[in-house]
Write a structure and sequence with these properties.
Number of strands: 12
Radius of gyration: 19 Å
Strand content: 25-35%
Helix content: 10-25%
Number of domains: 1
GO molecular function: transferase activity
Oligomer: single chain
Protein name: CoA transferase subunit A
Keywords: Transferase
CATH architecture: 3-Layer(aba) Sandwich
Organism: Sphingomonas mollis
Distance between the termini: 61 Å
Pfam family, one: CoA_trans
Structural class: alpha/beta
Order of helices and strands: EHEHEHEHEHEEEEEHEE
Number of helices: 6
CATH superfamily: Glutaconate Coenzyme A-transferase
Length: 236
């Protein structure tokens, strides 16, 4: 069996990066970000990147690092509302943006992994989302045609992997990661733990190893909380 386990995030990305490539990056908010691989992309310095991700990190964390180094030329994303650096670069014309409804983004990625070039959805009909896209009528309702998304490289964050690349995600980190793992020409997974072969119940595998090319142990597992909301404890 091909060895999929690499010694470091830098080694796991070796030979995969080039200027102008498209990268899918997992995560939702600050949960499930490939936080060990992103700094290595920054260090290597490739530019002109198109990045597909639900959002673009937060101040000092996640994809924000690639925005700060001006390595991203275009984002295909769903939520960009609280990233001031993203906003600044977009308004200054430094960054192209393809804003996509969240469910549509997930389905475009899933379609890319499943080999489905296009599909129809009601989401976005009659809005700027549908501009320039074919609209057809089915059963008296209008639907806009959306196309698949695929990438040169998918980087994902999982909880556990076995040497074959089978992945398990933990709770909210099982967001865009499983779909993105299927839609990259090459998929690199950083994981918190690598377990021996045969450790997984097949019914508990979220992403089969056939989709995963390289595995590396995470060097960063901060598990940040983006917005901490608490209330005063009531008196007994």
């Amino acid at each position: 069996m091909k060895n999929k386990v690499y010694d470091s995030p830098a080694a796991a990305l070796d030979g995969l990066l080039f200027d102008g490539m498209t990268i899918m990056s997992g995560g939702f908010g600050l949960s499930g970000n490939p936080e060990s691989l992103i700094p290595e992309i920054r260090a290597i310095g490739v530019g002109g990147l198109t990045v597909i991700s639900n959002n673009a990190g937060a101040d000092g964390f996640g994809l924000w690092m690639l925005l700060e180094s001006r390595q991203i030329a275009k984002m295909i994303a769903s939520y960009v509302g609280e990233n001031k650096l993203f906003e600044q670069q977009y308004l200054n014309g430094e960054l192209a943006l393809e804003l996509t409804p969240q469910g549509t983004l997930a389905e475009r990625i899933r379609a890319g992994g499943a080999g489905i070039p296009a599909f129809y959805t009601k989401t976005g009909v009659g809005t700027v989302v549908a501009e320039g896209k074919p609209v057809e009528t089915f059963d008296g309702e209008e639907y806009v045609r959306e196309t698949w998304l695929r990438a040169d490289l998918s980087i994902v964050k999982a909880w556990r992997a076995d040497p074959a690349g089978n992945l398990m995600f933990r709770k909210t980190a099982r967001n865009f990661n499983p779909n993105m793992a299927t839609a990259g020409k090459v998929t690199v997974a950083e994981v918190e733990e690598i377990v021996p072969a045969g450790s997984f119940d097949p019914d508990c595998i979220h992403t089969p190893g056939i989709y995963v090319d390289r595995i590396v142990l995470s060097t960063i597992n901060e598990k940040r909380i983006e917005k901490l909301t608490v209330r005063s404890r009531e008196n007994a």
